[in-house]
Each structure stands twice: as C-alpha cells, then as structure tokens.
Input
Amino acid sequence: MSMTDEPLYPIAVLIDELKNDDIQLRLNSIRRLSTIARALGEERTRKELIPFLSENNDDDDEVLLAMAEELGVFIPYVGGVEHAHVLLPPLETLSTVEETCVREKAVESLCRVGSQMKESDLVEHFIPLVKRLAAGEWFTARVSACGVFHIAYPSAPDTVKTELRSIYSQLCQDDMPMVRRAAATNLGKFAATIESAHLKTDVMSMFDDLTQDDQDSVRLLAVEGCAALGKLLEPQDCVAHILPVIVNFSQDKSWRVRYMVANQLYELCEAVGPEPTRTELVPAYVRLLRDNEAEVRIAAAGKVTKFCRILNPELAIQHILPCVKELSTDSSQHVRSALASVIMGMAPVLGKDATIEHLLPIFLSLLKDEFPDVRLNIISKLDQVNQVIGIDLLSQSLLPAIVELAEDRHWRVRLAIIEYIPLLASQLGVGFFDDKLGALCMQWLQDKVQSIREAAANNVKRLAEEFGPEWAMQHIVPQVLEMINNPHYLYRMTILRAVSLLAPVMGSEITCSKLLPVVMTAAKDRVPNIKFNVAKVLQSLIPIVDQSVVEKTIRPGLVELSEDPDVDVRFFANQALQSIDNVMMSS
Amino acid sequence: MNGGGDDDEVVAASADASPPLQWRFSQVFGERSAGEEVQPVDMISAIEFDHSGDHLATGDRGGRVVLFERSDAKHSSGARRDLEETDYPVRHPEFCYKTEFQSHDPAFDYLKSLEIEEKINKIRWCQTANGALFLLSTNDKIIKYWKVQDKKIKKICDINANPSGAVGNGTVANGVPDANISSLRLPVVTSHESSPVAKCRRVYPHAHDYHINSISNNSDGETFISADDLRINLWNLEISNQSFNIVDVKPEKMEDLSEVITAAEFHPTHCNMLAYSSSKGSIRLIDLRQSALCDSHSKLFEEPDAGGSKSFFTEIIASVSDIKFAKEGRYLLSRDYMTLKLWDINMDSGPLSTFQVHEYLKPKLCDLYENDSIFDKFECCISGNGLRAATGSYSNLFRVFGVSPGSTETATLEASRNPTRRHVPVPSRPPRLGGMAGRGSESAAGVDGNSNNALDYTTKLLHLAWHPNENLIACAAGNSLYMYCA
Output
C-alpha cells in the first residue's frame, strides 16, 4: 500500500490543480501533464484525460499555449502511434482559438502528431480534420487549416487529393485577408508535397491568385513563396512562370512588396539559374538599388555582396558597381549603413585590381561618413579587404581614417575602434603598430568616458598577449605605469585596472619587479577608492606571484590597509587577507 | 406648433427620390432625471457601432467602456428594407446593456510631470473571432486592445485531495482517502450560466508625445493607425512594443508650427490608403505603398480659396474636427466648426457639397471664442447607404442632412425623449448655398434667443454614430446615450 501512496498524493494535487483558480497552478499542472498521464496509464489518459482537455479549452491563453505544446509530444502517453489520433480533437479546438500564438503552437503540434501517424489513420482522422478546419465558420480555423495541408496531402487517395487542392485554392481566395495571408505563407510547404503534374496547373493558379491580391500584405507573402516554389519547378518552368512574376513584383506599386523582393532576390536567383539571372534579374536588382524608397534601397544594399557573388566580376563591375557608388552617397544614412556593413565582402569577389580602382574610394568615403554607424560597419570588416589588397595599401589609405576615428567625438565609435585594435595590430605587425597606434592606445587610458578607459585597459592586455611580454615591457608597461601619477583619481584607478589585467600576461617576475611596487605605492594614496582598489588588485596578484612575495610585501600592505579609517578599504583588505589564508591552507 | 415646422420640411423635400426620414425616439440609456447633476466622469466621450451593427460601445470620461448588444431579432434581409422604405411599421433595432469594464485609469507621466486623463478618446471595433468581441480603446496616450467574451461560470467538483488534507502535512489518510491510482479522478466541471468578461489583451504604450486624437483599423485585419497632433503611427495588432511612424508633420522648430493633425482614418476597403485632416481645414489622402514615410500626400482636399472677407476666426473655424469615409470609400465626410462637407476622393477641386450646421452662430463667434466653445470638436457620421449624414451642435441638437445628389432633406433633432420638441428654426430651403442662408437663420436665432430655447453652449452634442445598415443614430448628450430611428 505505502509504495503507491507516496507518489499518489502529489499527482492527485496536480490533477486537482488542472482546474485551480490560480492560473500559475493550472499552468504548472499542464506543464506536468505527462506526469499525470503516466500515473493514469495509457488507457485512462485516452479515455479520460484527453477528453477532459478537449472540453476545458476556454482557459487563459498561457494555459492553452502550454497545453498545445504538451499535446505535441504526447503520443507516448496515449499508447503510441496507433492511438495518436486521440490527440487530434483537443488540438483541433486549440487551433481555432483567437490568440495567434496558441493557434500557431497547436498547428505545429498537429503537424508533429500528424507526421507520426499511420497513413490509414491520417485518412480516417487527420484529413477530415483538415476539411473541418478549412470550412470553419471563423477565420481562425481557416487560418490554421492552411498550415496542416502538407501533412494530410501525401497520404490522401487521389480523389481526396483533388479535393484538398481545390479547398486550398478556395482558401487562397478567402474573404478574409488573414486567411489569404496564411494560404500564401504555407503555399511553399504545401506545394512541396504536390505531384509535379499538378504543380504547373493547380499550384500555379493559386500562386497567380495570390500574386494579384489587392492586399499588399498578401502579395508580399506571395513573394516569399516565389523562391520556395521556384526551387520545386524545373528551371525552364521556373523561368516561364516565376520569373515574370518576380520582375513584376520588383516594380510593384507598394514599396513593401518591392522591399520583400529586394530581400528575397538572392534566393530567387538561385531558383532561376545563372542565365536568366543575368538577363532578367540584374536589371530588376539594379532598379531596386535605385528605388525611390529608402527602405527598399536598404534591403537591396544589404544584399549587394551576396548578389555579386553569383554574378561574374565583369557583370558586377559593369552593372552593380555604379549603383554601389551612388548608394555610398545616398541621402539616407541607413542605406549607407547597410551598404557599409556588406561592401567589404565585395573585395574578394571583385579581385585586387577592381577593388583598388573602384572599391577603395568608396571605402574611404564611407569611412569619413558623418554617421557613426556607417564608419563602424566599415571598420568591423577591415580584415576582409586586407586579404585582397594587402596591408601596405590598406595602411596607406585607411590608416589615416582610422586614426581620425580613434579620436571621434562619439564615444561609441571610439569604443568600437578600440575593440578592433588588437585585430589591426595583428594584421599591421609590430613595426607599423608602434609608429601609428601605440600613442593612441595610451591616450585612450585617459579618455573622459569610463567605458573607453575600461576598454583601453583591456586593449593594453590584449596587445601584450598579441606581441608578448618583452615587447610590452618596452612599449606599454613604462608608459602605463607613468600614468599612476595622474592627479585625477579616476585615471589612477584605470591604471590599477590595467595593472591587474596585465599581471597574468606579464608573468611573475615582471609583476614583482615592475607592477607590484607601483601598486604598493598606490596603497598610500589619499583617495579611499584607490586604496580599496589596491586591495582588490593585490588579491588578484596573489596567485601570480611567489608565496614569499605575498608574505613579504602583499600581506603587510594589506594589513596596513585593514586598519584604514575607511570602512570599504578595510572590507576589501580583509577580504584579500582572507584569500591569502585560503591559498595557504590549500597549499 | 412644432409639428408645423416638421411638415414644412417634408413638403420641401418631397420631390426627392427617397422620402425624408421621420426620426423617432427609440431608446435612452443613463437618462438624467430632472435636476440631477451630471458627474464629469460619466460624460460619454466616444461612441462606435461594430461592423455588423449588432454591438455598440461607448466610452466615457471616467475611462469606462460600456457595451450594448442588439436585443431584437436581426433582420438583414432585403425584403425588410423594402418594407421600411414603403413606410410600414417595422421593428427597429433595439439594444440592451451587455457589459462594461474599466478600460483606462488615470495615470501620471513622471518624466514629463503630466497627468494622463483616463478619458476614452476613441473606440474602434476589430474583427470578431470565435464569438468573442475585440475592440481598441484609447485615451490621450495609451491604446488598449480588449477582448470581450462570454465566459462560463464554472463549478468544479469531484476533487481528489481533501482540501483539509492539502493544508495539513499531507498524511496519506487525509490526502487521498482511498489511495490507489484507479481512485484518481479528473475534476468534473459543471457550468451553469455565462457572463461577458472583458480582458485586456495588449497595451500599446509610449508611442505618442502628443495627445492621441484618432485610432483606425485597417481593412487588412492586422494593422491599425493612431494619430496625435503631429504624428501618425502604424501598428500591428499583434505587436505592442513597436510601431512605425508614417506621418510626421512636426517642423524642425516648434515656432514654425502652423498646422496640426486633427483626425485620421483608414480607407474602408483599400488597405494602403488613409486620410487625415488638419487644423487648417485640409484633408490629405496618403498612399502607404508609395513610401515608408508618407510625409508627402498623394491628394489634398481643400476648400478653394473664396477670396472673401477673412476674419480672425476664419482659420479657427476651418479646423476639421472629424472625418469619416462612407462605406464604399469613395466619399469622405468632414466636419469643421460651422459646416459639414462631403468630398469625392476622385475630385480634389473642392467639396461636393457643404452643409451649414449652425449658421446662426456666425455672429456669435466672438462669444464662442471667449468661452472656448469654438474649439469644440464635433464628430460626424454617415449612414451605411451613404445617403445621409449627421452631426451635432449645441443645446443637445443634432442635424441630419440628405447628402445624395439633389436631396434637400434636413432635420434638426434634440437628444431627448421628444426629438422634435423644439426647433431652432432653420430655413427649409436647401442649405447648401452656403453664405446666403445665413441671414435668415440669424434672425431666427434671435427669435430663438427670446424664447426659452436660448442656445446652451454647455450642452453640446459632440459624439454620435450611425448604425452601419439601419437608419439608427446613437448620440451622446452628457452622460446619456440616446438612440433615434427612422
């Protein structure tokens, strides 16, 4: 008896709480539906739990969403695939509720269950469900119907297949735009299951309906279908049926549709193949790059590199490059920004000569753009150009611009530049770096903005990693340590931070000889904030230096700090002392 | 004696194709008893029928939304309308109270130190789904999306765990009396009656620096716009944390500001078209397809400059207070302080017709300016068949005009149980001749002023709505909702 008693009580509570007034408890019970089902056993789950769920579907959306999700993975609990169909009724009602996210989850679960069902069960249970949903009184059911056709269709007998196709075509012409949108969204998925014989006839006529819809929102979803459909068709059919539609769409009255085309064109090119791309889609793309709506140009500009990759360099230079030049001086900063984020990728496509001749001037003008995002986007991709045009040319032409940006008015720009300095350093090499950028790195440590100083300290560490301790001893450490004498305590704090970051990189010896004395001097600072930061730094140095040094230098320093009048200094000093003790104990 | 005036109007308009309507009182909700003080929070501030006409929503200054439901058998057949036209006694739509809920509460914007009133500025109905009603309501700053659904009142029985056991330390004896798995039962839910429950589904905040004056949903069923004095934003109903600014008339320097947006509405069928009106009396039609930011209009509707005398008030009274598309979307109704205008969106040279609403106020503009009444924002509405339009005035009066070509029908009604009780004598000749009609009315108003019926500027009928497919007007007089049918 007692063996079953123990787990039974919590389950009883779980079951009761399926109908508790507190939504959190109901949600909890639904989330553990599988536990309840396991306790009840397969048969009672089928005969009691599932019908119970079907009946109680006017709950809050959060609960319904959880229920829809759980039911999608519920097949094992109702007795396996042969009983999977019992899950359909509750999911069917869930797929008709008015909250979109619940419906979508229910449709997803329906598909998941349906795709595991046996063919005969699909015919007996799933296909009637699809038909019921498609004939639903409210648009919500019909919207959901569009999402389950691709599961039902493959197992349907031929006559039913014809019927399903005609039902779908009715959905494509539904009164409610929401239903037509759902039909447009799911057309690609459905078409993938349809035999090629019907593709050209039935599916294309549905597609035509959608592409001629009055509602922009439907047409633009039809654009998305273009690529999916195109990939299903034979190339020549694709050219015959899809290509004219795309070209039409690229001149649609609605900028939102053109925007979609601009976003999708690359995929469409893949579908139609290289030759029609050259003859038909390049002109369409050029039109989009010159569209009078900035949003469309943004979308088009963002794809310029991808698009050029599928063209040969000559075509790209001949047709696309002039547009790119125009875009680099576009009136919309967002267009320039989108272009700047991808234009570096064009360098490998065009090759060295064309890059130097055509792209470099564009890079330079974008680097001087008045809008910081544009400049940043260029800098973040510098390495791509480096590979093509080589470091000499890059440094000659781009470095002045970078130096300029390093002193940019906007601290976010400076921050971004700092983040790229280690990368630049590795590409430029030690020699070059010393000349041009070394001074800047020191300057940032004394920036007005804390985030910059923080990043600068980190940068110093990364440089030391990149070029090694020896180089750092020569070029970084002396300069950094000199700054500890800065009259402003915030700058002194930055140096302490830099020291704590440098120490692990520089190793025990240099830390003891160079860094530690500086820190110990700082312990005598008059500002408490410096002093407790000294305590923190000393704590971080403990694992790096020898135990003898800890005992000889660090501990006395900390003991002194632990008697400081300031409570925070005492606190951090004691913490550091404690960690010394801990290290001693463990060793 | 009032009947006499009525007859005159009938005679004057009897040449029309459709006979003038005889308006009768139908229903009143929240009627004020004599001497009862109207609480400001109870003042109705928005009225809207849903698309089917089966539901009516009102919003008030106290932030409440009250829903009414049609209680008579729905008659949608064409035969019924024929009957109506031949003037047989027919049953008119009747409404009953359905539910109410607190849509908005007073709030405080701490950043700007501004109080945000709870007053409902506009209500718009959305697509019905699964028998649940959906509507958008807005105050000055925040738009909310409401779902109203009949929820069953549930009673749960057949509980496994004894409640007392659940509270206790869960000893087996207490918890599950007969402890084995087969004893576990699912709760049995019995439901008795249902009652409507309103639930706020989404809140669309922080998108307007100025006061929201309009919201309007799109025919695509997934987007809507909200307009404040300087900007119009486009929203997706499902997404409450982002909206797109589609019109921005804010000048670079606020000193250069000369015109503000007063109302905005989507075209009833073309999802890409919307109209907005301005304080300078112009209406702009914009095409969302043209560009993402629609600062340039595709069509501009303005009264051609008459070149006549301009007074200090000319610009103030030109401000458009409301615009409404007719059902098919070809005609557009606009209301400014003195007139109601009908526009054909295919004709931007001037309005098709202009109706003087209260010409007799013209000499009193100075007084109206003094007491700020000149800034009152009267709404207008157009019948489902597009043949008539109505708009409000002072003393709780509202006027109905025949707007079909050749119609001279006009009616003046008072929002009370006896709508034809008193009249501001309005000349029965066609009012659309504009300025000429003014003189007669002026003297008439003088007469009016001598009688007990002095114009009362505090009782103004700002909000009214026309049933989408019946001749039924719902209008707000203070805290009362009056309905008239014909």
Remarks:
- The interface with chain A takes residues 127-132, 134, 147, 151-152, 154, 156, 159-161, 166, 170, 172, 175-176, 179-181, 184-187, 189, 201, 219-223, 238, 270-272, 288-292 of chain B (CB under 8 Å).
- Residues 1-16, 75-88, 164-177, 426-453 of chain B have pLDDT under 50 and may be disordered.
